[in-house]
Amino acid sequence: MSTELWVKNGYVFTGEGFRYKNIRIIDGKIDTHYECEPEPMTENNANFIDASGCLVVPGFIDAHVHFNDPGRTEWEGIETGSLAAAIGGTTTIFDMPLNCSPSVTTMKNLNNKREYLTSKSYVDYALWGGMTGNSISNQEELAQMSKGIIAWKAFMCESGIDDFPFVSPNQMKMAMKIAAEQNKILALHAEWEKEIHNLTTFYKKQTSLDEHRAFLASRPISAEEKAVSYALEAAQKYGTSVHFVHISSPRVVKLIQEAKESGINATVETCPHYLLFNEDDFLKSGAILKCAPPLRPREEVEGMWDCMSNGWIDTIGSDHSPCLYSMKNTDSIWEAWGGIQGVQFTWLALLDEAMKRKIPLKDILPLGTANVVDRFGIAAKKGRIQSGLDGDLVLISLDETTIVDQQCIAFRNRYSPYENRKFMLKVKKTILRGKVIYDDYTGLTQEKDGQYILPREDAYGSVPNES
Question: What angle do CA 372, 457, 104 make, to 5 degrees?
């Protein structure tokens, strides 16, 4: 039996701006949308949603989360992680290959994870595959894995996870070659291991220096620059599509932008914490804001916003990297887990800050929608409000606020650097394939209908276009 849902009277994001439109979704797919005059909603019909006063935007896609299933569910799990994501307007996540246990570096681990996640997610999901110093030599298995993953992920420095060793500079060349031959994107945590190792060893011995300042000094921007430069040279040599995750400095963004202009197929992700917080916040709050790369000085944050305005940032990811609070509440900052919990607040924080800076939302929304699907080859399914695509929508009110307190936090361990912040907007409804999965009055659906997204092998390697 066919199902139908109308979303009426909303200001719908078209890619170029907002237009007053009605949207019809049939069997989970957008059937049509057309401009209209306001319609009074006289009947309480389950097939109609009145979006009056709301922005209607595509469901957000967070391409960088660590939900840790299976194996470290006490840190997080896809049930609690996807629940938090849905409340924040995210309808699709890409789960990273590490922090689950075992890491997704073999075909067996990939299959086990896929089977384990079945019927556990509130939102749709894809999986990253891991290239590591151990797995890089098994090209046959990597070829098998490539058919079921959204893209590859590798570290150029220690990951902090024992079964996910970093890829050395020499191994990086092989990783680039393999990814290029498979027509797969290779995403990189780009910090230069040797520099970080030497500086960390040095600064841990400087007992007269404040530990927090020592940690910041141990992971300088130069370590990002060196790693990115090396990776770009290798990408150019092998024709690899590369995606640099959680870039923290405008100097590094500019380096990648110059490479793009020279013809290298590269894209840049940054995270809300590099746009809202700075090193002074870390010095004040401590381990709750520890991440890698670390937070940067205020002038770097401002420079990142300049890069946003220039169109040099391609995607935004939360890099939701959860852990037990005890792993943050340590005696030494060196021992504290490096990761920030924020998947529920990614888009609230980003859009709120953009509006304060008077940056048009039409320039920001593609970073979590159209740009992501274009880059990762799923534009035929998601990312825009267009006929034939999944009916993934978010209704956002700019007339209401969201105050983050511990009670409202939905991920497993209820702490976050976003706690006590006030955002001048509110997610009213999140719709996944034509079904309301979150409503700010009635709460979250009981149904876990998230589907596994298979990649399209012929669609990889394209740089996001203007939408």
Answer: 75
